[in-house]
Design brief:
The structure is a single chain. This protein is α+β, with helices and mostly antiparallel strands. The chain has nine domains: about 1-85, Phosphorylase Kinase, domain 1; about 105-310, Transferase(Phosphotransferase) domain 1 (Transferase(Phosphotransferase), domain 1, Orthogonal Bundle); about 325-560, Rossmann fold (3-Layer(aba) Sandwich); about 565-630, no CATH class; about 640-725, Arc Repressor Mutant, subunit A (Orthogonal Bundle); about 745-855; about 875-1010, no CATH class; about 1330-1525, Beta-Lactamase; and more. It contains 67 helices and 38 strands. Strand 18 and strand 19 form a beta hairpin. The radius of gyration is 42 Å and the shape is globular. The two termini are about 55 Å apart. It comes from Aerosakkonema funiforme FACHB-1375. InterPro entries: AAA_16 (IPR041664), GAF (IPR003018), GAF-like_dom_sf (IPR029016), Hybrid_Histidine_Kinase (IPR053159), Kinase-like_dom_sf (IPR011009), P-loop_NTPase (IPR027417), PPM-type-like_dom_sf (IPR036457), PPM-type_phosphatase-like_dom (IPR001932). Keywords: Coiled coil.
C-alpha cells in the first residue's frame, strides 16, 4: 500500500491505466480526502502536464457539481493530487456493480442522474471550459446523499474551440468509446463545447441500456463507428420501470421513445444536429422525469423546444458541395478498390457507396478555386472512408513567403506521417522499420537528410557514397519513390494532400511527376489544391499537369464555385437557428458583400456579431439584426481589409506577435516566435491565446509540461496575409533581418543545417540592409549551405536561387580575400545550373571558374561539369574536345582523330606494361594515391561513352590510357571498368579472346574485391555483354548483367542499369528460355527501364518482346515486328534520325531470324544485308555470332536458286562467317560449336556431301541439346528433316520433323509450331486415339543422336544400346532412378514424370521430376492420392497395357477423372515396366504444353528400353535390400547397446517414480478428450481431433464444448513438459468448461477470468509455467477467435490459403495476473467446404532424423492439397505426412491437431 507523509491511507478505490485512486484521512485535521497519484514510478512529461492542467482547471472551477481540489503535491518522481471525499464512487463502478448483481438502474434514477450531470456540465461550459472526457468513470456519485460531481479535467481546455489533428486512434485524447466524431481529428470540423454533448449521449446510452453504443475492441473501427455509423436506438432495449404508488414493480418494458430520441440527438454526428445548450437538454430530461413521476409513463413531446443558445457558432456543415464530395470519394474508392474485398459503406446524407474489388491505381485529384472557396474543407471529407479502410492521411501546405524551400509541403506531410507511425506499437514500428530499410537499401541517409524524423524509425544510417551529378539526382529520385511506395499498401492506402500548389517549387512538381508515373506505385491518392486565378497555362504547375496527362496519368479536377444564395441562406439559418424566409434578406446582404466566398462569409458574419450587429435577444430567445444598420456601417467587401480590421482590434502586443509570425510562415511555433519577439515563452503564450480565442490562429499541439502550447497555424492564408500587411512596407525588410539574425543567434551549429532554409530566407529578403562585411560573408556561407542542401535533394531551382543570392553578395575581391568560399559557391552554382538544364548560365560560371581557379585539379572539376553538360545536350564531339583539353592539363595528350599507327603503338605500349606478368596478379596492385592520374582516369571514363558513339577510334586510346594509368599508378574506382573495356577491345576488335577474357576476369575480381559504388554498373555491363560469353556459357552472363542492373539503379547510374536490363532480356532469348515466361520477364524489365527513363534500352527490350510475342502467336504477321509491344514502322525513322546503330542492328537481326524461321528467305536476305551495315554498333556482343550464324543459314537456304557467280560469292561469304565461328567455337564450344556444325551440315547439303551432312546434323543436334539451346536443337532437327525428305528418306524425315515440332513446342514458339503443321502435314500426322494404343514400351536416352521412327529397322540401334547400357550399369537404386527418370522425360518429350514402384505392398511414387530441372526426387515413397490420376494407374496395373492420351481432357475413358479435370491435363502417357511377365513398376509422363506430344515413334523407343529398365530396377532393389539388412543389423546392435545403457539409468528410483507420474498424467490427458459422439452431434461442422502425448508428456490441450447450439473450441500448449505442465492443462480444461457452463460469452471477460483463475494456481505450482490458449466460438458459420496461440490455417473451398496470426488476440495465460487489455477477437465467416486447422507446436517443430523441422509451410501445403476431403481424411493425411517426416525419431513434444470443416 502507498505511504504518504501526513495521510492515513484507508483503501484503494480505483485503478485506471494511468492513475491509482486511494481513500485517505488527512492527519492534520482528520479530513477525509481522495488521493490521486500517477501509476508509473517514472511518469512521462505529458502525464505530468495532464495532472498539472487538471489541477489548475479544477481549482479555478468553484462549482458545486465539480470535485474540489485541495492541493497538488510532489511525491518522489511523480505528483499526487489531494481531492475532497464526499463518499462517492464513479458512476462506472456503480453500473458495473449493478450489472454484476443482475440488476438495472431504475429509469427515474437514470433521469435524475442525467439531469444532475447536465446541469453541472452547463455550469462548466458557462465558465468557458470544455471537459473533453465525459464518461461514467469521470462522474462521481454518492447514491445515499445523491450528490454528483464531475471529475478528471486532465485534457480539458479553456479555449472556446480547438482544431483536433489527425492521430493514431490509440493515442487520441479522451476515452475512445465516448469521444465525439470531431474529437477523433477525422472530421472536417473544429471542436467546441458541443463535443461534451456527444460524450454525454454515449454516457446516457450506457446508463440506460447497460452497454455501449459501439461494442468493438478495434480502435480504428471504433473511430469509424463514431464518425460514420448509427447505433441501435436505446428504445429497442428494455429497462426497469419506476415503482408506482402501490409499490408494485411492473415488468420490464422498452425505454421510452422520447428518452431514446434525446440520447440519439445528443449523439448526432455533427454538432449542429445536437442540442445547442445544456439547459435545453436539462429541460427535456426534466419533462421526462415529471411525466414519469406523475403519470407513470412518458408521452412524446417536441424536443429542444427550450434549446436556445446565446453562443454564436457558425455552422460547420458543407453547403452546396454534394456533387463535389461525391466526385472526390468516388476517386478515392477507385484508388483504394483493392484494399477492401468486402463492400465498404460510407454514409453521408443517405449516400451508400461501395468500395469495389477493382484494380488499384494511383490517381491525382486537383481541387481548384479562389482563396477561401473551401478547398481544404472539401478535401477533409476524405477522412471518413479513409478511416474505414485503415488508410493513412497526411497533408502539407506550401507557403506564399517560403517558395524557395524545396519540398516544403512534401517534407511537412511526411514528417506528420512519421509522427503517426511513431505512435504505433513497438511491434508495428518494427515492421515499419523493416519495410523502410528494405526500401532504402544502403541509401537511407538520402531521405533522412530531407526528413530527419525518419531516423527515429530506422535508426542511424550509413553515409551514402559520393556519386556523379546525374547519378546523385537519379539516386535521390529513385529512393524517394521507394520511400513513398513503402507507405502505399493494400492494407492501408495513402492519401497525400498538398495545399496551395500554385506556390509549389519545381523540385516538388518533379517529384509529383515521378509519383504519378511510377508504374510500381499503388494505393496512392494524391490530392492537390490550388488557386486557379493565380495560375496561367504556362505556370509550372499547369505545365506539369499537362505533361502528366500526356503520359497517361490519371488526373481529375474539381473546380469550386462561390456559394449560391440558397446555400448561404441555409448556412445563416442553421447558425442563427431561424427559418429560411426570415434570414433571406440578411443572406442577400452577405452575398453582396462576400460574393459567396465561404471563408469571407464566415468572417463577415463573425464581424457582424463582434460589432453587435447580430445580437441574441434574451427576451425573445432569438437572434436579431437590422439590415439597414448593417448597411450603414459600410463594412469592407475586401476580405484582407476585413481581417486587418479584426487584427487591429487585438492588443498591440498580440498584433506584433502575429505580424512576426506571418513572416515565419503559415505555421509557427512558440519557441521561434519567442526568439524573434525577444520575449519569454510565457509572455508570448499569453498574447497568442488572445489570438486563439479570437479565432485568428489555431493551436495544433497540446499543452506541454509547462502548460504552454507550442505549435500554431493561421486560420487561413488571408489571415496570414492580413497580419503581414500590418507591417509598414518600409519596415518589412527590417523585420525580416531582425528575425533572421535572431534565429541564427539562437540556433546551435549542429542544428543549423535543419534550420538553414528558414534563416537564410529572412536574411536574403533584407540583405541590402546588411553593410558589415563579416555578416555579409556569413550570409554567403548560409546561402552556400542552403544551395548545397537543395542540390543534394535534387531541388535545382531552389539551389540556384540560394547560390545566386550568395554570388551577388560576394565582395569584388572575394577571389583574393575568401578564395575557398568563392570557389565553392561558383562550383556549386555551375553544377546546379547544369543539373537544371540552364547550360548558358553554366557556361558563364564555368568561364569565371577556369579563369580564377589556381590548380589543375580545381579546373578538372569545372571541365567535368562542361563534359556532362555537352553530353546531356547530345554534343558528344564537344564533350570529347573538352575532355582532351583537361587531359592535356593533366599531362596526357591524346589525338582527336588517331591514326592506325598511333592506335597500334598505343596497344604495344599497353602490352609492354604487363608483359611477363600473370594478368591475374594485377589484382595485387596498390590503390592509387596521386590525385592527377586519378583525375585523368576519371575524365577518361567521363568521355568514354561519348567517344564510343562519336569517335570509336579514339575510344580505343581512351581505354588503353585508363589501363596504362591503372597499371602504372594503382587501382581506383574506375580501374575495373577500364580492364573490362580493355577486355571488350581484345575480344571484339583484336580478336585475342584468351587475353580479353583474362582482363575480364581481372575486372570481375576487382569489382568483387573493392565493390566500388561508382563505375560498378558500367564494368558489369561491359563484362556481361561484351566479354564473358566468349569463354563461358551464355547463361553465365545473366547473373553479371542482373547485378549490374541492380547496382546501377541503387547508385543512380541509370544509363548502364538500362543497358544491363536489356542484356538480361536478349541473352535469355538467345539462350533459349521458354518464351511465355520470358515474355513476362521482358515486360517486367521494360517497366523497370521506363521507371528510370532510359528510352533506348526500353525500345530494344520492346523490340525483343515483340519478337517473342510473334513466336508465341500473338501478332498478325510473325515476320514483322508490329504488335502490342513494339511497332517497327514508328520506331525505325526515329532510330535512323538518331543514328542508333545498336538498335538498328538489333531490329534487322530480329527480322532476319523471324523471316528465316518462317521461310521468307528473300526477306531474310534483305534483312541480313541491312543488319550487316550496323555491326559496328554491336562490337563483341552476343548478337555478333548470332548474326553470322543466321546470315550463313539464310544464304545456304537460297543457295540452289542462285546463279554460279552468286553461289560463288555466297560460298565465300559463308566460309568467312565459318572461319569466325570456328575460332569462337574453339574458345567457347558450348556456345558456338553446334552453330558451326549446323552451318557445316547445311553447306555439305548444298554441296552434295551427304555423309558429311548427316554427321554434322547429328553433331549440331547433340551440341545444342547438351548445352541447353532448345531453339537451335529444334532448328537442327527441322533442317535435318528437310534434308532427309529431299533425299526421299521419309521415315527419317518424319522422325526428325516430329522432334523439331516437339522442340519448338517446348520453347513455346506456338506460331512456328503451327507453321510446321501447315507446311509439313504429311510429316506430322495426327496421333491415333489413346484407347487404341496398347503398347508396353519405355522411353529413349538423351545420348541418342539419331531418333528412330515406328519401324524398328529405322532406329539407330547402336545409340539405343548405349542408353540401355547407361541404365544397366547403375546398381544404386537412387542413382538409377535419377538417371532413368531423366532418360524417360527428355526422350519421351515430357514436362513432368513419375516412376511408381511397389513399396510395402502399396504403389508409391519413388521418383519424380521436371525436364528443365536437375532435381529428381527419389525414394520418398509418396502416396499416389491427389497427385496422379488413380483410375489410369489402376487400369495399367490390371491390364499391363500402355495408355496414351493426346488430349486427356477431351478424349478417352478418363475425362472425368478428378485429377485430369482439376489439372486440365493435355498429353499423358502411362506405361508398365515388365520383367519376366511381372509388373515391376509404372512410368507416368505428362506434357501440358501441347496435345499429341507422345507419338508412336517415341513409344517404340520406350519399348526397346522397358525390359532393361525393369531388370535394372529389380537388381538395384535387391542390392538395396541386402545393403539395408546389413545396416539394419548394425543399427539393431547399436540400438541394443543403447537400450541396455538406458535401462540401467531407468532403474534409478527417482526416474521410475517420475515415469509413473507421467504415465498417470498421460492417461488423464487422454481421458478428458472429447468423445466422437460429442463431435458428431455438432451441427454445421465436421470436427475431428488428434492428440499423441510426447515420451515426456507435455501440456497440450484441446477441447470442444457445446451448449445451447453454440460451440466453443479450445486449443493450447503449456510451457515445458512433465507433471506440472499436465496438471496446468487439466486446470485449464476445467476452468474453460466451468466458464462455458456459466454462459460467459464476452471473449475479453472469458479469458480474463480464466487467466485470473489459472494464475493463482500456477504461482503455487511453478511461477514459470504458463500456456498459450486460443478459443474459437462457433455459431451459424461464424468463428470468433480470441486468445494467443499458433497461427490458424484456413483453406477456403476454392483452395485459397489464409493464415490468421493470433499474437495480437491475447496474451499467455498465467504469465501476468491482468491481461484484459491484451485480449481482442477476430471474426471469420466460413462457407461450405472451408477448412480450419488448429495445432500445437509439436506438429510444426517435429524433427526428422536430420533435425529438420516439419514446419508451418509444409503443414499448410498438406492441408491445401487435401482440403477437398472430409475433416477426418484431412487429419489422417496430416498425421501420415508428419509420421513420414518424423520416422523413427523420438517425439519430444505433444502432437495435437484439430480439423474443422464447414458442412
Amino acid at each position: 500500500m502507498l505511504k504518504i507523509d501526513g495521510y492515513l491511507i484507508l483503501s484503494q478505490v480505483y485503478e485506471s491505466t494511468n492513475s491509482l485512486v486511494y481513500r485517505a484521512i488527512r492527519q492534520q485535521d482528520n479530513q477525509p480526502v481522495i488521493l490521486k497519484v500517477l501509476k508509473e514510478d517514472y511518469p512521462t512529461a505529458s502525464e505530468l502536464t495532464r495532472y498539472k492542467q487538471e489541477y489548475e482547471i479544477t481549482r479555478h472551477l468553484n462549482l458545486d457539481g465539480v470535485i474540489k481540489v485541495y492541493s497538488l503535491e510532489p511525491l518522489q518522481r511523480t505528483l499526487v493530487m489531494i481531492l475532497e471525499d464526499f463518499g462517492a464512487s464513479s458512476l462506472k463502478q456503480l453500473m458495473n456493480k449493478s450489472k454484476a448483481a443482475g440488476q438495472q438502474m431504475l429509469l427515474t434514477e437514470c433521469l435524475a442522474i442525467a439531469i444532475k450531470i447536465t446541469e453541472t456540465l452547463g455550469h462548466i461550459h458557462s465558465s468557458n471550459v470544455i471537459h473533453k472526457d465525459i464518461n461514467p468513470a469521470n462522474i462521481a456519485y454518492n447514491p445515499k446523499t445523491r450528490v454528483l460531481k464531475l471529475i478528471d479535467f486532465g485534457i480539458s481546455t479553456q479555449l472556446t474551440r480547438e482544431n483536433p489533428t489527425l492521430k493514431n486512434p490509440h493515442i487520441l485524447e479522451g476515452t475512445l468509446a465516448y469521444i465525439s466524431p470531431e474529437q477523433t481529428g477525422r472530421m472536417n470540423r473544429y471542436l467546441d463545447y458541443r463535443t461534451d454533448f456527444y460524450s454525454l449521449g454515449v454516457t446516457f446510452y450506457e446508463l440506460l441500456t447497460g452497454q455501449l453504443p459501439f461494442e468493438t475492441n478495434d480502435a480504428l473501427e471504433l473511430v469509424h463507428c463514431h464518425i460514420a455509423k448509427q447505433p441501435v436506438p436505446p428504445d429497442r432495449f428494455k429497462i426497469q420501470k419506476s415503482k408506482l404508488k402501490n409499490d408494485e414493480l411492473n415488468k420490464s418494458q422498452k425505454i421510452p421513445k422520447v428518452v431514446s430520441d434525446i440520447v440519439m440527438k445528443l449523439m448526432a454526428k455533427t454538432a449542429e444536429e445536437r442540442y445547442q445548450s445544456a439547459w435545453g437538454i436539462k429541460a427535456d430530461l426534466e419533462e421526462c422525469l415529471t411525466q414519469l413521476q406523475t403519470k407513470g409513463n412518458i408521452s412524446a413531446f417536441p424536443l429542444a423546444a427550450k434549446d436556445i443558445s446565446d453562443k454564436f457558432q457558425i455552422s460547420q456543415k458543407l453547403y452546396g458541395r454534394e456533387a463535389e464530395v461525391e466526385t472526390l470519394l468516388a476517386a478515392f474508392e477507385r484508388v483504394a478498390g483493392e484494399s477492401q474485398k468486402s463492400k465498404a459503406k460510407s454514409q453521408k446524407n443517405g449516400r451508400q457507396s461501395q468500395i469495389l474489388n477493382t484494380k488499384s491505381q494511383i490517381e491525382m485529384m486537383l481541387v481548384a478555386g479562389y482563396s477561401g472557396i473551401g478547398k481544404s474543407s472539401l478535401i477533409a471529407e476524405i477522412h471518413k472512408p479513409n478511416s474505414q479502410l485503415r488508410g493513412y492521411f497526411t497533408e502539407g501546405k506550401f507557403d506564399q513567403f517560403q517558395r524557395n524551400i524545396p519540398y516544403s509541403a512534401i517534407v511537412s506531410a511526411f514528417k506528420e506521417l512519421v509522427r503517426q507511425l511513431l505512435t504505433e506499437s513497438e511491434a508495428q514500428l518494427n515492421l515499419w522499420r523493416e519495410k523502410l530499410l528494405v526500401a532504402f537499401g544502403e541509401n537511407g541517409q538520402v531521405i533522412i537528410d530531407v526528413i530527419p524524423e525518419v531516423e527515429l524509425i530506422v535508426g542511424k544510417q550509413p553515409p551514402v557514397p559520393d556519386l556523379g551529378l546525374s547519378e546523385s539526382k537519379n539516386r535521390f529520385n529513385l529512393v524517394f519513390q521507394k520511400f513513398i511506395r513503402a507507405f502505399c499498401a493494400k492494407e492501408h492506402p495513402l492519401v497525400i494532400f498538398l495545399d496551395d500548389l500554385q506556390w509549389a517549387d519545381s523540385a516538388t512538381l518533379k517529384l509529383i511527376e515521378l509519383m504519378m508515373t511510377d508504374t510500381d506505385m499503388q494505393y496512392l491518392f494524391l490530392i492537390g489544391a490550388y488557386r486557379d486565378n493565380e495560375v496561367s497555362p504556362t505556370h509550372p504547375l499547369m505545365m506539369t499537369l499537362d505533361k502528366l496527362r500526356n503520359l497517361g496519368a490519371t488526373i481529375n479536377f474539381i473546380t469550386l464555385s462561390p456559394l449560391k444564395i440558397e446555400h448561404t441562406t441555409r448556412l445563416i439559418a442553421d447558425t442563427l437557428h431561424d427559418n429560411i424566409e426570415r434570414v433571406k434578406p440578411l443572406a442577400e446582404l452577405v452575398m453582396r458583400k462576400t460574393g459567396g466566398n465561404p471563408f469571407f462569409v464566415n468572417q463577415f458574419l463573425k464581424t457582424l456579431h463582434a460589432e453587435r450587429l447580430i445580437e441574441f435577444n434574451f427576451q425573445s430567445y432569438a437572434w436579431k439584426w437590422d439590415i439597414a444598420r448593417i448597411d450603414s456601417q459600410n463594412i469592407t467587401d475586401n476580405v484582407v481589409e476585413l481581417m486587418i480590421g479584426k487584427l487591429k482590434k487585438l492588443p498591440s502586443s498580440t498584433q506584433q506577435i502575429l505580424y512576426l509570425a506571418s513572416c515565419v510562415g503559415a505555421s509557427f511555433d512558440l519557441n521561434t516566435i519567442s526568439i524573434v519577439c525577444e520575449k519569454s515563452k510565457e509572455v508570448v503564450f499569453s498574447d497568442l491565446i488572445v489570438a486563439v480565442q479570437s479565432g485568428l490562429i489555431l493551436p495544433i499541439s497540446e499543452l506541454d509540461a509547462n502548460l504552454l502550447i507550442q505549435d500554431y497555424k493561421f486560420l487561413h492564408d488571408r489571415v496570414q496575409q492580413a497580419a503581414y500587411a500590418l507591417i509598414d512596407q518600409s519596415q518589412k525588410k527590417v523585420v525580416h533581418l531582425q528575425i533572421g539574425r535572431l534565429l541564427l543567434q539562437n540556433t546551435a551549429a549542429a542544428n543549423l543545417s535543419d534550420k538553414v532554409f528558414e534563416i537564410v530566407d529572412h536574411l536574403n529578403l533584407a540583405v541590402e540592409l546588411v553593410s558589415d562585411r563579416t555578416e555579409q560573408n556569413e550570409i554567403v556561407k548560409l546561402n552556400l549551405m542552403a544551395g548545397q542542401k537543395a542540390k543534394a535533394a535534387a531541388a535545382y531551382a531552389g539551389a540556384i536561387a540560394y547560390l545566386n543570392a550568395g554570388l551577388k553578395l560576394l565582395s569584388a575581391d572575394s577571389w583574393q580575400s575568401d578564395y575557398e568560399l568563392t570557389l565553392a559557391l561558383y562550383e556549386e552554382a555551375a553544377e546546379a545550373a547544369y543539373l537544371s538544364g540552364d547550360f548558358e548560365q553554366m557556361e558563364k560560371l564555368a568561364l569565371v571558374l577556369l579563369n580564377r581557379t589556381k590548380t589543375v585539379l580545381e579546373k578538372v572539376k569545372v571541365y567535368d561539369v562542361k563534359i556532362q553538360a555537352a553530353g546531356a545536350q547530345g554534343n558528344f564531339k564537344e564533350a570529347i574536345k573538352i575532355g582532351l583539353q583537361v587531359l592535356k592539363l593533366l599531362g596526357l595528350t591524346l589525338p582527336e582523330q588517331p591514326t592506325q599507327l598511333e592506335i597500334q603503338k598505343a596497344f604495344q605500349e599497353t602490352a609492354l606494361l604487363y608483359v611477363g606478368q600473370e594478368i591475374e596478379s594485377l589484382i595485387n596492385l596498390p590503390e592509387i594515391t596521386e590525385p592527377e592520374p586519378q583525375a585523368a582516369i576519371y575524365i577518361l571514363s567521363s568521355i568514354s561513352a561519348a567517344a564510343y558513339i562519336a569517335a570509336p577510334e579514339l575510344m580505343l586510346l581512351i581505354v588503353l590510357s585508363m589501363v596504362d594509368l591503372s597499371i602504372k599508378f594503382g587501382h581506383c574506382t574506375w580501374s575495373a571498368f577500364s580492364y573490362a573495356a580493355y577486355g571488350l577491345i581484345l575480344c571484339g576488335v583484336i580478336q585475342d579472346i584468351e587475353l580479353g577474357y583474362k582482363f575480364g576476369k581481372l575486372s570481375l575480381n576487382l569489382v568483387e574485391h573493392f565493390n566500388p559504388k561508382r563505375g560498378k554498373s558500367r564494368a558489369l555491363e561491359v563484362l556481361g555483354a561484351h566479354v564473358m560469353h566468349w569463354k563461358e556459357h551464355f547463361k553465365e552472363t545473366l547473373p553479371i548483367v542482373s547485378e549490374g542492373y541492380q547496382n546501377g539503379v541503387e547508385t543512380g547510374e541509370f544509363e548502364f542499369a538500362g543497358y544491363c536490363a536489356f542484356f538480361c532480356c536478349d541473352h535469355s532469348y538467345f539462350i533459349g528460355h521458354e518464351l511465355t515466361s520470358l515474355e513476362g520477364k521482358m515486360a517486367t524489365y521494360g517497366n523497370a527501364i521506363r521507371q528510370i527513363r532510359r528510352e533506348n534500352p526500353f525500345n530494344w527490350v520492346a523490340m525483343f518482346r515483340q519478337a517473342v510475342l510473334n513466336l508465341l502467336g500473338r501478332s498478325k504477321n510473325p515476320r514483322f515486328l508490329i504488335g502490342d509491344a513494339y511497332n517497327e514502322e514508328e520506331w525505325l525513322p526515329l532510330a535512323m534520325q538518331a543514328n542508333d546503330r545498336l538498335g538498328l542492328h538489333l531490329l534487322y537481326l530480329n527480322k532476319l531470324i523471324l523471316s528465316y524461321l518462317f521461310g521468307e528467305y528473300s526477306l531474310a536476305i534483305e534483312n541480313a544485308l541491312r543488319a550487316e551495315e550496323y555491326l559496328d554498333g554491336v562490337i563483341a556482343m552476343v548478337v555478333v555470332p548470332i548474326f553470322h550464324f543466321y546470315d550463313s543459314l539464310v544464304h545456304l537456304a537460297v543457295f540452289a536458286d542462285g546463279s554460279n557467280s552468286e553461289q560463288e560469292a555466297w560460298l565465300n561469304r559463308i566460309n568467312l562467317n565459318q572461319e569466325k565461328m570456328q575460332k569462337w567455337a574453339h574458345h567457347a564450344p558450348m556456345n558456338f560449336l553446334h552453330k558451326f556444325d549446323l552451318v557445316e551440315a547445311e553447306k555439305a547439303r548444298v554441296l552434295g556431301q551427304v555423309v558429311a551432312a548427316m554427321d554434322f546434323y547429328e553433331r549440331a543436334i547433340k551440341g545444342a541439346r547438351d548445352n541447353g539451346f532448345i531453339q537451335e536443337e529444334a532448328l537442327a532437327y527441322e533442317l535435318a528433316a528437310k534434308f532427309y525428305q529431299a533425299r526421299g528418306m521419309d521415315k527419317f524425315a518424319q522422325t526428325y520433323m516430329k522432334e523439331a515440332h516437339y522442340g519448338y513446342v517446348r520453347w513455346g514458339a506456338k506460331a512456328k509450331v503451327e507453321d510446321l503443321e501447315v507446311k509439313y502435314p504429311y510429316l506430322l500426322p495426327k496421333s491415333s486415339p489413346a484407347n487404341n494404343l496398347t503398347f508396353s514400351h519405355t522411353i529413349n536416352n538423351p545420348n541418342i543422336t539419331t531418333t528412330g521412327s515406328q519401324s524398328a529397322s529405322a532406329l539407330d540401334l547402336a545409340t539405343v544400346m548405349k542408353a540401355s547400357q547407361a541404365i544397366s550399369g547403375e546398381i544404386l537404386l537412387d542413382k538409377l532412378l535419377t538417371k532413368l527418370m531423366k532418360i524417360l522425360m527428355e526422350n519421351a518429350g515430357a514436362q513432368t514424370g513419375y516412376l511408381i514402384l511397389e513399396t510395402e505392398g502399396k504403389l508409391q511414387i519413388e521418383a519424380c521430376g521436371e525436364v528443365d530441372s536437375d532435381n529428381i526426387t527419389v525414394l520418398q515413397s509418396i502416396p499416389l492420392e491427389n497427385r496422379l490420376p488413380i483410375a489410369i494407374i489402376n487400369y495399367v496395373v490390371r491390364t499391363k497395357e500402355t495408355v496414351v492420351l493426346n488430349d486427356a481432357t477431351g478424349e478417352g475413358n478418363f475425362t472425368n477423372d478428378p485429377y485430369i479435370k482439376q489439372h486440365q491435363t493435355k498429353s499423358l502417357l502411362c506405361a508398365p515396366l515388365i520383367d519376366r511377365s511381372q509388373l515391376s513398376g509404372i512410368v507416368y509422363l505428362e506434357n501440358n504444353l501441347t496435345t499429341g506430344a507422345f507419338t508412336p515413334n517415341r513409344l517404340s523407343v520406350l519399348q526397346l528400353l522397358s525390359g532393361q529398365a525393369a531388370i535394372s530396377i529389380e537388381n538395384a532393389r535387391l542390392y538395396q535390400t541386402l545393403d539395408d539388412k546389413v545396416k539394419e543389423r548394425t543399427a539393431q546392435l547399436a540400438k541394443a547397446n543403447q537400450e541396455i545403457t538406458a535401462l540401467n539409468e531407468l532403474l534409478k528410483a527417482e526416474n521410475f517414480r517420475m515415469r509413473s507420474e507421467l504415465e498417470v498424467t498421460k492417461q488423464l490427458q487422454q481421458m478428458i478428450l472429447p468423445k466422437q459422439s460429442e463431435l458428431e452431434s455438432i451441427e454445421g461442422l465436421e470436427i475431428t481431433g488428434f492428440m499423441e502425448p510426447a515420451d515426456e508428456v507435455g501440456g497440450d490441450y484441446y477441447d470442444i464444448l457445446q451448449r445451447d447450439g453454440k460451440v466453443k473450441i479450445g486449443i493450447g500448449d503449456v510451457t515445458g513438459h512433465g507433471l506440472e505442465s499436465g496438471v496446468l492443462m487439466l486446470m485449464t480444461q476445467t476452468a474453460v468448461r466451468t466458464l462455458q457452463e456459466s454462459d460467459r460469452t464476452d471473449p475479453v471477460q472469458f479469458l480474463d477470468i480464466l487467466n485470473r483463475t489459472i494464475y493463482g494456481n500456477a504461482q503455487r505450482i511453478n511461477p514459470y509455467r504458463n500456456l498459450t490458449l486460443t478459443l474459437l466460438d462457433y455459431a451459424n458459420g461464424t468463428l470468433r477467435i480470441s486468445g494467443q496461440h499458433e497461427e490458424i490455417i484456413i483453406v477456403r473451398a476454392s483452395g485459397e490459403l489464409e493464415r490468421i496470426d493470433t499474437r495480437n488476440l491475447g496474451f499467455p495465460i498465467a504469465l501476468e495476473e491482468d491481461i484484459a487489455d491484451f485480449i481482442s477477437s477476430e471474426e471469420v465467416q466460413l462457407n461450405s467446404g472451408d477448412v480450419v486447422v488448429l495445432y500445437t507446436d509439436g506438429v510444426t517443430e517435429a524433427f526428422d532424423i536430420d533435425r529438420h523441422q516439419y514446419g508451418l509451410e509444409r503443414l499448410c501445403e498438406i492441408v491445401k492439397c487435401n482440403h477437398s476431403f472430409s475433416a477426418a481424411e484431412i487429419r489422417q493425411a496430416i498425421v501420415d505426412d508428419l509420421r513420414r517426416h518424423i520416422g523413427s525419431q523420438k517425439i519430444f513434444d505433444d502432437i495435437t491437431l484439430v480439423v474443422l470443416k464447414q458442412k
